[in-house]
Amino acid sequence: MSTERYNAREAEPRWQKIWDERGIYRTRNDDPRPKYYVLEMFPYPSGRIHIGHGRNYVMGDVVARFKRMKGFNVLHPMGWDAFGLPAENAAIERKTHPGKWTYENIATMREQLKLLGLSLDWSREIATCDVSYYGEQQRIFLDFLKGGFAYRRESEVNWDPVDNTVLANEQVIDGRGWRSGALVERRKLAQWFFRISDASEELLAGLDTLERWPDKVRLMQRNWIGRSEGLHVRFVLADAPAGVAENLPAAIKVYTTRPDTLFGAAFLALSPGHPLTEKLAAANPALASFVEECRRGGTSTAEIETQEKMGFDTGLKVRHPLGGPDLPVYVANFVLMDYGTGAIFGCPAHDQRDHDFARKYALPITPVVLPPDVDPASFSVAEAPYEGEGTLFNSGFLDGLTVPAAKEKVALRLENEILGNAPVGERAVNYRLRDWGISRQRYWGCPIPIIHCDSCGPVPVPEDQLPVQLPEDVTFDQPGNPLDRHPSWKHVNCPQCGAPARRETDTMDTFVDSSWYFARFAAEPGTAPLQKGAADHWLPVDQYIGGIEHAILHLLYSRFFIRTLKKLGRVSVAEPFAGLFTQGMIVHETYKDAEGRWLFPEEVERDGEGRPVKVGTGEPVTIGAPEKMSKSKKNVVPPEIVADTYGVDCARWFMLADTPPERDSEWTSAGIEGAWRFVQRLWRLVGDTVALAPEEVTRPADFGAESIALRRASHRLAAQVAEDIERLRFNVAVARVHAFANVFAESLTGARTGAAAGPVAPDLAFALREAATFLTAVVAPMVPHLAEECRLVLAGSGLMAEAGWPQVEDELLVDDTVTLPIQINGKRRGEIVVPKAASPAEVEKAVLALDLIAQALDGRAPKRIIVVPQRIVNVVA
Ligand code: ANZ
Ligand code: ZN
């Protein structure tokens, strides 16, 4: 028996070096094997990684290694989502350059990822801030522009009036600028957009083809796109009171999904940005200042929706389209300009916002939908609106109809009513999805390749002047965009007329950078970043793995991007990710010292009585509940510490073992120690095998019962773990390995006992070596370093990293035993496992030998035993 411990600290770097030197994980596009592309969402280079970041990379790595063993040409690349605000903040705080900070972080994190033993093709590494990458992105932008998928329009931004700068949504905290603390205002600015809303329907339909995506994510995307079917209704203006404004339109068009509630309408409301509002405000200073007030506060939808409802009565009235009383027209802060028509009718009895509004402005609340089985006399909506299904009442020709039937009837009636030369009602489909504003007033991003000329307008940067590179010499000592105040960068001549002109100083949203990086990985290193042949070969990504926080925007933008590239003829695929998996997080306890300061786990130990204390000082420490690992709470574990103490294979094993991969998993020292013990056990099982059966054994013609039993277990292990990994059920795979280890250990003990009398029989030696080989192969994707070491002991040469998955013999998978229930005098008393081929006489003999029979019969012989083959055994006492 081998007593030597497995020394991960020595073995792991040694194997990593060998893999590296042999270039084992380099992928070639011309490899003839079938392709498999596995990708984890690439990281933002924020500084250092902790073990909590590692889980999705390890999961992806298991899949990559497994698919290689299964004979696929696997692409498993890594890169960096490297542009973004944190680098600028770091530049401000540390007086460094964002690029320097970013590339330094990348260097650190690359080494940390390498430590995890990931089978990545590092030759394809990219950072989105590499000029070669963002230069191609500028070409894509210009293609989008030419194809009509990009355009410029005025749109609102968050404006910090003290710092005189545009703020990103995440820089607005409780309505105030993050640095100045000033109340944020909304300002209009000309910005660039991608026309994603035109793709709403196809993005929705495409979801149905993504069968290997979690339902949850598909639902989130569906809701985000937010398709709704409703009616446009024109409300005719009554005669305006004197002095309101001149040249008013004849009617106001609203969008409603509840035309059935028209008889409950109490008011009309216009968005503060509605053209009619603007017209009215021009003649009404009080309204103008109300609109001004609405502009305060951030631009995010969440912010607009949570604000208190505010309205301004314009004095205008409209006619009710179905003959009800005239309705007042308000301007209201909760009506969005860029949804529907920017105008609504309000029905306070059946909508929460309208209810809030009606209570505030003392408008009538008339119910028109009666819930099922409710007496109209006792039904009240004074306190809360009723938003459910029911039967129409108080509604003239609609009375007695269900909500859907009433919707249909109103639609039919209004569609056929012509006013001027258009119908009063028109069916309409709306989507919540807005066009994607990509302009950011920041330095650290991909410059938008446009030149603004006073006479020619916005002009694309000509092909031969691309890429537009970011200038290096910038300062961050004052607020605002450094590109804007750079002395020379933006001053260029117009490519069309040659007159002095200005570069666009906005850069692109970093979501653009992450919308096509997976296509960049497809191209061989050193070649053009976006190549049709390469992208078509590798895309879609077969398995994409990442956090649920990216369920909506990143995935939706990437889907739009690839669809658009397809329309432009640059790729042939429509959907970028065929399979998606969202992994759970790693959580860890938090620690605080007596003063309430966070402590790192390595600063905490247990004293003699098991109480947590601070290392060195012995001060008491309070332990908090497990939370997502985060730098700010210090509940992080650096990979280096794990590698040095236990080896990264232990960390990998633990991350896969503990919980289903989609759920959060708690990192504990007990857990990682358990993983360590199991790694040692695997090593011993292999060592023990070699001690008993040191030589390669040729396959004997016949196998004894013990050998067959072990072989069955080995082959079942290989078959089942393969399926588990295919389905990403890593924890189940680990559980199977544990169970197998027990079976294997028993066989080894049996063989050792037998071996006292002489050498192990060749059939058993073969089965033992096969078991060890299978076990090594099956754990190889999860603990790749240990597997190499085991293989070396078993086979003497070759690399596990280049080995195939074990050949499973199907006949060893069929179960050849059957479990029969045993009844004594008609009552079920137990069961027995017998070979399927056993004769009734053999079954009877086996049953009689059972303790439970002897006990039940008190030593007497049974009157009769009836064996129904494959079904049941009946004993008559
Ligand atoms: C009258 C009504 C009565 C409504 C009722 C709802 C309930 P979805 O399903 O998301 O499409 N709406 C329309 N345009 C709006 C805008 N620009 N800003 C804010 N709200 C707007 O929502 C459609 C409903 O949201 C519409 O149906 C409209 O209010 C409102 F008992 O019309 B409803
Ligand atoms: Zn010009």
UniProtKB/TrEMBL annotation:
Main location as per UniProt: cytoplasm
Aminoacyl-tRNA synthetase class Ia domain segment(s): 433-589, 627-667
GO cellular component: cytosol
Domain Methionyl/Valyl/Leucyl/Isoleucyl-tRNA synthetase anticodon-binding: start-end pairs: 714-842
Ranges where the Leucyl-tRNA synthetase editing domain occurs: 222-414
Motif range ('HIGH' region): 43-53
Coiled-coil segments: none
CDD domains: Anticodon_Ia_Leu_BEm (cd07958), LeuRS_core (cd00812)
Enzyme Commission number(s) of this protein: 6.1.1.4
Methionyl/Leucyl tRNA synthetase domain segment(s): 38-172
Keyword Protein biosynthesis attributed: yes
Region (Disordered): 608-630
One Gene Ontology MF term: aminoacyl-tRNA deacylase activity
Keywords: Aminoacyl-tRNA synthetase, ATP-binding, Cytoplasm, Ligase, Nucleotide-binding, Protein biosynthesis
Localization: Cytoplasm
Catalytic activity: tRNA(Leu) + L-leucine + ATP = L-leucyl-tRNA(Leu) + AMP + diphosphate
GO biological process, one term: leucyl-tRNA aminoacylation
Motif segment ('KMSKS' region): 628-632
Binding site for ATP: K631
HAMAP family assigned: Leu_tRNA_synth_B
Family the entry assigns: Belongs to the class-I aminoacyl-tRNA synthetase family.
Record-linked PANTHER family: LEUCINE--TRNA LIGASE, MITOCHONDRIAL, LEUCYL-TRNA SYNTHETASE
Name of this protein: Leucine--tRNA ligase
Protein source organism: Ancylobacter rudongensis
Lineage summary: Bacteria, Pseudomonadati, Pseudomonadota, Alphaproteobacteria, Hyphomicrobiales
Originating gene: leuS
